[in-house]
Specification:
The chain is of the alpha/beta class. It has helices at about 15-25, 35-45, 60-65, 65-75, 90-100, 120-135, 150-160, 210-220, 220-245, 260-275, and strands at about 1-10, 25-30, 50-55, 80-85, 140-145, 170-175, 185-190, 250-255, 280-285. The chain is built from 10 helices and 9 strands. A 5-stranded parallel β-sheet has the order 2-3-1-4-5, with helices on both faces. Strands 7-8-6-9 form a 4-stranded parallel β-sheet, covered by helices on one side. This is RNase adapter RapZ.
Length: about 290
């Protein structure tokens, strides 16, 4: 059975991800207590279900601790299990809850001896949720949705689910430092030291995927040198991550606006590693 387990911080897009999977033909279950995961899989397998997506959140606090063992047992039993952990900055989450006017799931919980009139604030709920989920954050692929639109998140989820089983998948992601470093990055490389095409009025409206910008940066010795350094670093350490049984490795490349230099560098890295590795390329600030 192909199983996708979706977890993460409330407001980070778990419902969006679950809807994508439902549209793709997955049998979807929201807010399942982890203790029921194995019995659900057994029941659906007997019924002939091949695609299952399950969302788990912090409300199942008592059984969250056993989730890593549950995932391990499912993999040992031969199931293809992918885990996606969605997160976002506290600032982004507060803004989203304010826009939707929905309450946080943990806001309805009362701490021992607490006066019902003194419930947790939104910030306290988010902090408590992060603490509860910290032990399972590294079970799978972490996706930072802070600067992602719902449509872009849907596209990323489709990419991840489409990846067939492989020893390791390399994600190359461009981003803008002025909008924050991606929380899901394993490595972050800063390419702001390179000459900036933004200051050429003819290149300003273009991106690092356009031929004039590519030609501009290809002509910069510093760009070639930095590309070689990053490429050599990844090549040196990639075998270690493979032997550590990692499924994903996210390499984030940032410049000021996430439009020219970081896009160019992420594209070049994906081109280099594409023939020999499973590679996914994404540009956070681009449509």
């Amino acid at each position: 059975m192909h199983i996708v387990l979706i977890t993460g911080i409330s407001g980070s897009g778990k419902s969006v991800a679950l809807n994508v999977l439902e549209d793709a033909g997955y049998y979807c279950v929201d807010n399942l207590p982890p203790a029921l995961l194995n019995s659900l899989v057994s029941t659906l397998r007997e019924e002939g279900t091949e695609l299952l997506a399950v969302a788990v959140d912090a409300r199942s606090a008592e059984s969250l601790a056993g989730l890593p063992q549950d995932v391990g047992r499912l993999k040992t039993a031969g199931h293809d299990v992918k885990v996606m952990f969605l997160t976002a900055t506290t600032h982004s989450l507060v803004a989203r809850f304010s826009e939707t006017r929905r309450s946080h799931p943990l806001s309805h919980e009362l701490r021992p001896g607490q006066n019902p009139a003194a419930r947790r604030t939104l910030i306290e709920c988010i902090s408590e949720e992060r603490e509860r989920l910290s032990a399972i954050e590294k079970l799978g692929h972490v996706i930072d949705t802070s600067e992602l639109s719902a449509s872009k998140l849907r596209g990323w989820i489709k990419e991840i689910v489409a990846i067939e089983r492989a020893p390791l998948t390399l994600f190359f992601e461009s981003f803008a430092f002025k909008l924050g470093v991606p929380l899901d990055a394993d490595f972050v490389f800063d390419v702001r030291a390179l000459p900036n095409p933004y200051y050429d009025l003819a290149l300003r409206p273009l991106t690092g995927r356009d031929a004039p910008v590519i030609a501009f940066l290809d002509a910069q010795p510093a760009a070639a040198e930095l590309l070689t350094d990053i490429r050599d670093f990844i090549e040196k350490w990639l075998p270690s991550f493979k032997t550590d049984n990692r499924s994903y490795l996210t390499v984030a490349v940032g410049c000021t606006g996430g439009q020219h230099r970081s896009v160019y560098m992420a594209e070049r890295l994906a081109q280099y590693f594409g023939p020999s590795e499973r590679v996914v390329l994404r540009h956070r600030e681009q449509p």
